[in-house]
């Protein structure tokens, strides 16, 4: 159900004359008070009375309390249209729309209310609630504004308590919750925040739930709030347990039921999520997360699952043949590396889900803070984009998989007790460890953040992920967290990072871990890290403005085909900021000019530098591979083409060519994988591809597989001479083998 | 075509190609091992015939 202010809703007409006089004894506050105490039947009767009022506003509140949302919406419309309508009517209407998943129009109504009454604290509170939904840092600002207008606004303190806890600031959360409780001994949400703080610190929340029960034994929202914070802290299984308690306390708490379903899906389940989500949906919980999760469950029929001892791989049927060999091989490589590095084994197989439709993947991250743009990890389940779902060059599935798998290990090693900054930082660090070209890129927005001294102190780094204060802060935080781990490894060694993992598992805070493991105060650490970073990228930061000017000039020269001038100017642009490999980079300008001037070795050197700096345009890398081959470096060419496989493995020609190169270099296993990939892309010339694959199998000594492939080739084209000759060779090898075996047996 | 030997070889080639086509149609109904054996036999005969023709 998605209400709108302008939506056409069929309603029973309400004639003022026919309204029952009994409504005079009920008021919205009185009804809400009954609800707050869990006195449902009385609350319902109270709302029933209101719904029969002659006053549109009271009717709206009545219908809302009875969960008759369309009627409530219409009654609010009538109420605000009346002359002399109060600002609070708009605020309450806005809150109804916020409740029914229409934040856009809710914000309009809060703003209209503020025009009418600029001192309306409730309107600011409404804006704060909507902002909080989107992890917008303005939520705090609005909540404080509301409190400045009404110091006794309990809900504003409760919201601030929640926001502080979201930002991993439990002390602040407790302080705000206590302010709410001081104003009202029945501040249930504040008590629930207290309970969540206790649970996040692995202490018992019982004391707080006893207090909650004394006010309202059916207050499921309290358990749901705890579940929400557990999920936010990546404690998905614990979160599920608390959502279960929420619906046990209040079986009609559809939002909690939906969250239960969504989080069970995150743990790799399907049957119960479907049941819970359908139940929620059928009872009006039609927010985007519920609807899209149901759609995603429905789309699972188009996926296929492959299992082995350590992995469960879910791929869309249409691309499973292509991707499976690459993903499975990489997963096993990652598991072997991390088993050794983190000195542990995962408790069970890891499930990796690969979504070619980005919207399907996005459903997995809904309601979660941070970017979540490429992959997301829920315990032992990883969901990520498929390379086919992104623009070629935008996404490296290999580095994403290494990143997410690091989360799987760290979450398991710490029993999900790890601050966001550290697990993200370590995951970014691991990308660079897996392949130096995959190190987090020093993009212009990061350079600017360093220049403008916007990096956060280590003790506050979680904030940069959860409630960013400027648009690129999440990206900047990934870089900062990753480079902090690079720094720790460089100064103290790999084992120190592992020690920190164990310290976080022992529930130490970031300042405690920095102190105990690195023997520095957080402030001393910040100072040392900043000095290291300055040494590493300070010059590039200082060069930024000059670089930008010179790159612009270089682009102009390149556009005018002034190749000699480009060749002269580009090296300086590269020296100023060698890490820049984004759109319109100096490497590509220079290589194009060198090629136009016939300087192929120069272009090859330039593009090799681009590749080493992390350049990932598939076309540019393919150009490099072709130069390497032409200039007698087939091994380098194969390795460049293989790098493209991690970026965009959907190119049939690439696989065919890499197959040829590897076959010629006796990398038979590689050639088999590449020709198998060509077949998975349904080539027009299937006979040739099967023949190529047969050659690779034959070279690898897998004669049975070679025979299968060559027969498939000849089945399509019986007169295909090279395949015929290969069949004869295979049969002859088979016959020689049989003779040798017989002769060995006779000798015995 | 005046060369009777070549004419025979061409006829044999056509016959083998038809046999392979027929086998392909029957593939779904055949036991896989038997299909593979018959297809391989026909293909190896075809290799010989084509080799003769190319001499």
Describe the protein.
The complex is a heterodimer of chains A (about 750) and B (about 55). Chain A is mostly helical and about 750 residues long. A five-stranded mixed sheet of chain A has the order 1-2-3-5-4. Chain A starts with about 25 loop residues before the first helix and ends with a helix. Chain B has about 55 residues and is mainly alpha-helical. Chain B contains two helices and no strands. In chain B, helix 1 (about 5-25) packs antiparallel against helix 2.
Short synopsis of the structure:
By secondary structure, chain A is mainly α. Chain A is 68% helix and 3% strand.
Structure annotation, total helices of chain A:
37
- Helical amount of chain B: over 70%
Largest sheet of chain B: none
CATH topology of the domain at 301-413 in chain A: Glutaredoxin
Number of strands of chain A: 5
The domain tally of chain B reads 1
Could you give the order of strands across the largest sheet of chain A? 1-2-3-5-4
Strand content range of chain A? under 5%
Q: What Rg of chain A is obtained from the alpha carbons, in whole angstroms?
A: 31 Å
Give the integer mean of the pLDDT values of chain B: 92
Could you give the distance between the termini of chain A?
82 Å
Q: Detail the poorly predicted runs of chain B.
A: none
- The rough form of chain A would be described as globular
Helix content of chain A: 55-70%
CATH superfamily of the domain at 301-413 in chain A: Collagenase ColT, N-terminal domain
Write the layout of secondary structure elements.
The complex is a heterodimer of chains A (748) and B (55).
Chain A: H1 28-36, H2 40-51, H3 56-65, H4 69-81, H5 87-99, H6 103-116, H7 121-133, H8 138-149, H9 154-166, H10 170-183, H11 188-200, H12 206-215, H13 220-232, H14 236-249, H15 254-266, H16 271-282, H17 288-299, E1 303-307, E2 311-316, H18 317-341, E3 350-355, H19 358-365, E4 375-378, E5 381-385, H20 397-413, H21 420-434, H22 444-451, H23 461-466, H24 473-492, H25 494-505, H26 510-518, H27 522-559, H28 563-576, H29 586-596, H30 600-612, H31 618-630, H32 634-645, H33 652-664, H34 668-680, H35 686-699, H36 703-716, H37 721-747
Parallel strand pairs in A: 2-3, 3-5
Antiparallel strand pairs in A: 1-2, 4-5
Helix pairs in contact in A: 1-2, 2-3, 3-4, 3-5, 4-5, 5-6, 5-7, 6-7, 7-8, 7-9, 8-9, 9-10, 9-11, 10-11, 11-12, 11-13, 13-14, 14-15, 15-16, 16-17, 18-20, 18-34, 20-21, 21-24, 22-27, 24-25, 25-26, 27-28, 27-29, 28-29, 29-30, 30-31, 31-32, 32-33, 33-34, 33-35, 34-35, 35-36, 35-37, 36-37
Chain B: H1 4-26, H2 32-54
């Amino acid at each position: 159900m998605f209400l709108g202010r302008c939506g056409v809703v069929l309603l029973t007409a309400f004639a003022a004359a026919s309204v029952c006089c009994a409504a005079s004894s009920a008021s919205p506050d009185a009804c809400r008070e009954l609800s707050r105490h869990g006195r449902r039947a009385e609350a319902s009767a109270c709302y029933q009375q209101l719904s029969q009022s002659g006053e549109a506003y009271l009717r709206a509140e009545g219908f809302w309390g009875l969960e008759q949302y369309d009627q409530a919406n219409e009654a609010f419309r009538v109420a605000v249209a009346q002359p002399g309508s109060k600002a609070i009517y708009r605020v309450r209407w806005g809150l109804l729309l916020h409740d029914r998943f229409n934040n856009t129009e809710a914000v309009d109504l809060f703003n209209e209310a503020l025009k009418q009454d600029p001192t309306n604290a409730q309107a600011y509170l409404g804006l704060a609630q909507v902002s909080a939904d989107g992890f917008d840092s303005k939520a705090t600002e609005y909540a404080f504004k509301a409190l400045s207008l009404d110091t006794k606004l309990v809900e504003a303190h409760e919201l601030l308590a929640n926001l502080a806890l979201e930002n991993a600031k439990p002390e602040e959360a407790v302080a705000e919750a206590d302010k709410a409780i001081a104003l009202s001994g029945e501040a249930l949400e504040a008590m629930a925040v207290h309970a969540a703080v206790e649970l996040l610190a692995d202490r018992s929340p019982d004391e707080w739930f006893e207090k909650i029960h004394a006010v309202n034994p059916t207050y499921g929202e309290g358990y749901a709030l705890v579940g929400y914070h557990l999920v936010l802290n990546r404690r998905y299984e614990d979160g599920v347990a608390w959502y279960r308690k929420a619906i046990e306390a209040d079986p009609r708490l559809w939002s909690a039921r939906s969250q239960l379903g969504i989080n069970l899906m995150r743990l790799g389940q399907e049957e119960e999520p479907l049941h819970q989500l359908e139940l929620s949906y059928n009872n009006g919980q039609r927010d985007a997360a519920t609807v899209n999760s149901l759609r995603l469950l429905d789309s699972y029929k188009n996926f296929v699952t492959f299992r082995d001892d350590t992995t469960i791989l879910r791929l869309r049927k249409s691309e499973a043949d292509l991707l499976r060999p690459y993903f499975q091989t990489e997963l096993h490589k990652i598991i072997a590396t991390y088993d050794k590095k983190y000195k542990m084994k995962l408790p069970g197989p890891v499930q990796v889900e690969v979504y070619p439709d980005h919207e399907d993947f996005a459903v997995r991250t809904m309601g979660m803070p941070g970017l979540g743009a490429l992959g997301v990890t829920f315990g032992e389940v990883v969901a990520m984009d498929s390379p086919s779902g992104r623009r070629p060059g935008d996404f490296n599935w290999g580095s994403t998989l290494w990143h997410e798998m690091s989360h799987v290990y760290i979450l398991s090693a710490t029993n999900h007790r790890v601050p966001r900054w550290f697990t993200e930082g370590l995951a970014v660090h691991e990308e660079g460890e897996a392949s130096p070209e995959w190190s987090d890129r020093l993009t212009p927005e990061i350079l600017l953040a360093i220049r403008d001294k916007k990096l956060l102190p280590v003790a506050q780094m979680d904030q940069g992920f959860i409630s960013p204060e400027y648009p690129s802060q999440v990206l900047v935080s990934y870089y900062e967290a990753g480079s902090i781990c690079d720094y720790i490894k460089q100064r103290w060694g790999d084992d120190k990072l592992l020690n920190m993992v164990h310290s976080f598992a022992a529930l130490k805070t970031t300042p405690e871990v920095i102190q105990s493991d690195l023997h520095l105060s957080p402030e001393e650490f910040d100072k040392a890290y900043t000095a290291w970073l300055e040494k590493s990228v300070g010059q590039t930061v200082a060069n930024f403005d000059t670089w930008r000017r010179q790159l612009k000039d270089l682009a102009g020269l390149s556009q005018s085909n002034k190749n000699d001038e480009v060749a002269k100017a580009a090296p300086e642009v590269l020296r100023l900021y060698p890490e820049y490999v984004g759109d319109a980079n100096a490497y590509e300008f220079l290589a194009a000019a060198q090629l136009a001037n016939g300087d192929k070795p120069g272009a090859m050197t330039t593009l090799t530098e681009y590749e080493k700096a992390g350049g990932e345009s598939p076309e540019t890398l393919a150009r490099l591979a072709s130069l390497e081959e032409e200039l007698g470096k087939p091994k380098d060419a194969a390795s460049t083409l293989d790098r493209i496989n991690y970026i965009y493995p959907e190119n049939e020609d690439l696989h065919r060519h890499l197959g040829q190169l590897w076959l010629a270099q006796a990398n038979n296993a590689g050639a088999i994988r590449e020709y198998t990939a060509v077949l998975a892309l349904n080539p027009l010339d299937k006979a040739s591809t099967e023949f190529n694959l047969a050659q690779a199998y034959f070279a690898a000594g897998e004669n049975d597989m070679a025979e299968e492939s060559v027969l498939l080739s000849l089945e399509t084209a019986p007169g295909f001479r090279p395949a015929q000759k290969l069949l004869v060779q295979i049969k002859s090898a088979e016959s020689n083998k049989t003779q040798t075996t017989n002769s060995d047996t006779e000798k015995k | 075509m005046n060369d009777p030997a070549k004419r025979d070889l061409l006829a044999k080639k056509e016959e083998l190609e038809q046999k392979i086509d027929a086998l392909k149609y029957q593939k779904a109904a055949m036991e896989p091992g038997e299909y593979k054996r018959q297809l391989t036999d026909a293909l190896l005969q075809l290799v010989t015939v084509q080799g003769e023709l190319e001499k």
